[in-house]
Amino acid sequence: MASLQQLISSEGNRVDGREFVWAHFKLNAEQRLRGFNFFVVLAIFADGGVLAACWRRCSAVSRPGC
Q: 29 and 23 in contact (C-beta within 8 Å)?
């Protein structure tokens, strides 16, 4: 399947409708997947930071010298 830019530039202004719609759908699907993956990674790091902070707080409370 050709990319969206190749479809537009290959035949001037004539583009098969199905190929154009499929290329557009594919582009949108890739962007949604990248956005979702970004938030999954962000959530993992945020949870890790919260857990690390809680672990430090709990260990500091149990050991008053730290």
A: no
